[in-house]
């Protein structure tokens, strides 16, 4: 009886167990339509074919001049919890116009992950890209080049051991992060796409990552990320469904798709398109994020709610009190003498007319 029960529990556990792996993609240049075509929250799992087709779509458009495909065997979603280990990746991600974070990609069987070779061939066929393979340890392998041909740097990092302590894993990941930064620095272009992924999977309880009620939705997010409720903070801390939530979930501007890195690259437009483009101010509406600035950073006049008289400004009055008193005095003096003068003139007139009458 007890054995039966244990078997049943085992069976249920096996049935609801699934293998997943995390993947993170970001592109400096906007990949138009990519985010819009994801018809569910990033906090819900992605199927493997879905993930592959989204990434293929991003790659085949050749929007970047440099591509980094990084594979970290043994990488788990929990590793992303240590923000410090991903300093440079997070920097580059923040600058990017398109971010596709896939905390959980469902895999059909253990070790069945993204077909990175297929992405490479897409890039070499569509973008005439040149491939470089490096092992993620030896810096000298980083290619140094100055031409404009599209490059793909495939980095196969050494596996993270499942035995290692969190501290050791984080240290390793920090080294990997620095390696990626060095690769980015050697590229003669800011227009870079990075795919950070793994070729190993991990078992997970599927119910834990498919409950729609525990998704944090856009309308629950406060405009000021500093006032996130304690309840939501706890939800995020224990969540197994987000990568770098401060960038991907709580930055409201990420819910809209727009080019963040347009730097005078409008060449080649004919007049009509240029006109149309200059009329498009919808981004102003889309960008809802409010920038809260420290008062010490205000430029002149920036904290004025409305234009007010200098005399209503206490500092101004205090600093220039003597001058203001003198000016006011002179003004009063002039007015007083004018009034007296006018009075005298009128008195004279009255006196002279009465004199004339009496004569
Ligand atoms: C993952 O990649 C590493 C490094 O390229 C390789 O040695 C390993 O066999 C791969 N593992 C799987 C499950 O494909
Ligand atoms: C992990 O630890 C176990 C026992 O402590 C050991 O047998 C195994 O070889 C270790 N694996 C790795 C990859 O270090
Ligand atoms: C604003 O900046 C000043 C100087 O940098 C600092 O002392 C102060 O604490 C800051 N205030 C806030 C509200 O961050």
TrEMBL record:
Kindly give the membrane topology term recorded for this protein. Single-pass type I membrane protein
**Extent of the signal sequence:** 1-17
The record's Gene Ontology biological-process terms are:
(1->6)-beta-D-glucan biosynthetic process; cell wall organization; fungal-type cell wall biogenesis
TM helices/strands, residue ranges: 321-347
One GO cellular component assignment for this chain's record is: endoplasmic reticulum membrane
Q: Where in the cell is it found?
A: Endoplasmic reticulum membrane
Q: What main location does UniProt list?
A: endoplasmic reticulum
Enumerate the InterPro entries for this protein. Big1 (IPR037654)
Alphabetized UniProt keyword annotations = Cell wall biogenesis/degradation, Endoplasmic reticulum, Membrane, Signal, Transmembrane, Transmembrane helix
| UniProt family annotation | Belongs to the BIG1 family.
Question: What PANTHER family does its record include?
Answer: PROTEIN BIG1 (PTHR28285:SF1)
Its recorded name reads Protein BIG1
- Annotated organism of origin: Eeniella nana (Yeast)
């Amino acid at each position: 009886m007890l054995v039966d029960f244990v078997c049943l529990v085992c069976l249920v556990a096996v049935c609801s167990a699934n293998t997943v792996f995390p993947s993170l993609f970001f592109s400096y240049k906007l990949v138009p339509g990519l985010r819009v075509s994801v018809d569910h929250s990033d906090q819900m799992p992605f199927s493997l074919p879905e993930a592959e087709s989204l990434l293929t779509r991003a790659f085949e458009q050749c929007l970047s001049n440099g591509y980094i495909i990084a594979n970290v065997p043994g990488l788990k979603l929990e590793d992303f919890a240590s923000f410090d280990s991903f300093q440079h990746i997070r920097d580059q991600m923040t600058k990017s116009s398109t971010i596709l974070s896939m905390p959980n990609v469902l895999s059909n069987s253990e070790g069945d992950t993204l077909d990175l070779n297929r992405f490479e061939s897409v890039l070499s066929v569509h973008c005439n890209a040149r491939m470089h393979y490096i092992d993620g340890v030896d810096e000298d392998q980083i290619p140094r080049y100055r031409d404009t041909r599209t490059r793909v740097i495939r980095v196969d990092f050494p596996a993270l051991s499942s035995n290692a302590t969190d501290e050791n894993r984080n240290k390793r990941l920090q080294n990997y992060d620095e390696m990626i930064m060095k690769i980015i620095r050697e590229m003669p272009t800011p227009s870079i796409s990075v795919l950070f992924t793994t070729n190993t999977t991990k078992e997970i309880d599927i119910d834990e990552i498919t409950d729609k009620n525990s998704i944090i939705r856009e309308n629950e997010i406060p405009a000021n990320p500093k006032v996130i409720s304690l309840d939501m903070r706890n939800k995020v801390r224990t969540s197994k469904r987000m990568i770098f939530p401060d960038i991907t979930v709580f930055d409201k501007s990420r819910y809209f798709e727009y080019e963040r890195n347009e730097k005078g690259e409008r060449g080649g437009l004919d007049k009509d398109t240029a006109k149309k483009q200059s009329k498009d101010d919808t981004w102003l509406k889309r960008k809802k994020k409010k920038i809260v600035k420290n008062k010490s950073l205000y430029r002149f006049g920036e904290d004025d709610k409305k234009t007010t008289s200098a005399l209503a400004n206490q500092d101004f009055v205090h600093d220039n009190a003597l001058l203001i008193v003198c000016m006011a005095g002179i003004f009063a003096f002039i007015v007083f003498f004018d009034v007296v003068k006018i009075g005298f003139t009128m008195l004279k007139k009255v006196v002279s007319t009465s004199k004339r009458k009496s004569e």
